Amino acid sequence: MGLDSIAGRPNPFRGGDAFPSGHDGARPYGYGRVSTDTAGRYAIETVLHGSFKGPGGETYAPQISVPIVARGLLKALHTRVFLAPLELVKDDPLARAIGDPARLRTLITTRDPKDPKIYRWDVRLRGAGEAVFIEF
What are phi and psi of 107, to 5 degrees? Predict the structure, then answer.
């Protein structure tokens, strides 16, 4: 996974937290904090979990909540990463709110063709392919 800077250049001064849900969809299940290496890469190891029900009974797709902190940011940026393909997340409340499939793809992982247990998610903070961020 990678955390890119504005022009796609790696930035080693970034980090993020991860709040995955449990394998049975219970929320929250865990917490993790990572920093990028000098090439802007990071890795998170977690359980692959399923969909879960929200407080209003709505169904959420498998996802990890991700706040991102970086040099120059005054506040953390909040987003989510979906651990399922686009067609399986389209009914998620956040996916419906985003609406635009091109924007939604910025939050969807891809599986590594050599190892299907590995997912890749490159997040861009600005510019073309910028990830969707959630305002609280």
Answer: -110, 10
